[in-house]
Amino acid sequence: MFMKRLLAVLLVVMAALLMYGVMPAIAEDGNEGLDDFVHAAKGSGQKMNISPGIFAHIASRADAYLANGAKTIFAADVKRKMDAGEQVFIMDVRARADFLKGHIPGAVNIEFANAARPENLVLLPTDGTQIVVVCYSSHNGNQLTALLNVLGYDAWTMRFGMMGWRGVTSMKIGSSTAAAQNIYGAGNSVVLGE
Prior knowledge:
By secondary structure, the chain is of the alpha/beta class. It has 8 helices and 7 strands. Helix 5 (96-101) links the parallel strand 2 and strand 3 (108-109). The N and C termini lie far apart (50 Å).
């Protein structure tokens, strides 16, 4: 009975992957005959025509990033670099209200939800300067770091986000909410605002 259920679940997962993962990539790489099927499977969203060369370029960058594991850096190492005068671009992706209550000196606030907008991407260095992405606990930072690396930036996530920075510098982290806020990371939860 367990094996039948497992097989059924695996078949559903495989079908979903084919419809939403593999098929779109194949169809958008210029393979005829699948395009209408994939567009119908995706829903009524805008149809995108991506040339095979662009997809291959993005895929190769994604493969390179994923093959080497996540690019993370500890807050102590970021502080050491800053103290030594090394060029580091700090991208704080927390909510603006929280950024204003406390942030790493020199950090630029680009909220997570808006980070991939062209008007924000032009703020990022293109000369190879290391970008350190900072969020609350590094969960959003990891997602954005992957995206930025696929786009060709040298981005790193600061491990444990502002919680990590607080541990190194004793900086108080503010919260934009009146109630206590639980932030999880490093194996334990931290309660802010109490």
